[in-house]
Design brief:
By secondary structure, the protein is of the alpha/beta class. 36% of the residues lie in helices and 15% in strands. It binds adenosine-5'-triphosphate and magnesium ion.
């Protein structure tokens, strides 16, 4: 079973790493692939290039053997649609392997804005983690209905089926966001416990985020 952790990672932070570490332990993934988005369809274009964001990811995950960097979205042009990423992963990995898209509830709540979103469930499961945020976006009635049809409380379902389920897990998520990290860096505020020291070093060397 493979975990797929997509995001802008602008930059990767300890909140992301806590998601991956908690889910690796709870769900026993064979591997977790970090998949940086080159051109996020629903966000403004990040000022830091996709290559630099991927490089920070590589630095952050290099000591965990189960973690991999998957840069396929950097090799495509146009918007980075998850449906295209999952289609390409399926073609490569076969029909039978279980694929789990790891996602925070804030992002999952907006899933019905994703390109061809109903088809995503034919390609992967969703493992959803709560996220401590001041404002939790609400799901549309349509998405809520699909979610409640697909939800399971049994992690075994993810192992025994290749796709189609939603599993929601409580992981004591950290209250860190890339937005906060970017703002603090731009204001010369410390970010010490928010992301790995090796990533902070890279940001300083490359003068990213106004540092
Ligand atoms: P930004 O503030 O720029 O949106 P972010 O911190 O939300 O950045 P993303 O790259 O947008 O990070 O998020 C990638 C994925 O990681 C999303 O599914 C998001 O919900 C999840 N995620 C990000 N931070 C956390 C966190 N602290 N706890 C749990 N999930 C998180
Ligand atoms: Mg975000």
């Amino acid at each position: 079973m493979i975990g797929l952790f997509g995001g802008t990672f602008n930059p990767i932070h300890n909140g992301h790493l806590h998601v991956a570490a908690s889910l690796l332990e709870r769900l026993h993934f064979d591997e977790i692939r970090f998949i940086p988005s080159a051109t996020p369809p629903l966000k403004n274009m990040p000022q830091v290039t996709a290559n630099e964001r991927a490089k920070m990811l590589a630095i952050a995950i290099k000591d965990t053997p189960q973690y991999m960097l998957d840069t396929r979205e950097l090799q495509r042009s146009g918007k980075s649609y998850t449906i295209d990423t999952l289609t390409s992963l399926r073609r490569e990995l076969g029909e039978n392997v279980s694929l789990c898209w790891l996602i925070g509830m804030d992002a999952f709540s907006q899933l019905d804005q994703w390109h061809r979103w109903p088809e995503l469930f034919d390609l992967a499961h969703f493992v959803i983690v709560e996220r401590p945020l001041d404002t939790q976006p609400a799901m549309s009635a349509n998405l809520q209905q699909v979610f409640s049809q697909r939800i399971t409380n049994n992690a075994e379902d993810l192992h025994t089926h290749p796709c189609g389920y939603c599993l929601k897990l409580e992981i004591d998520a950290l209250a860190i966001s890339s937005t906060t990290v970017r703002h603090r860096l731009a204001s010369s505020l410390p970010v010490d416990n928010m992301l790995p020291g090796s990533v902070i070093d890279y940001i300083q060397q490359q003068h990213l985020y106004g540092v």
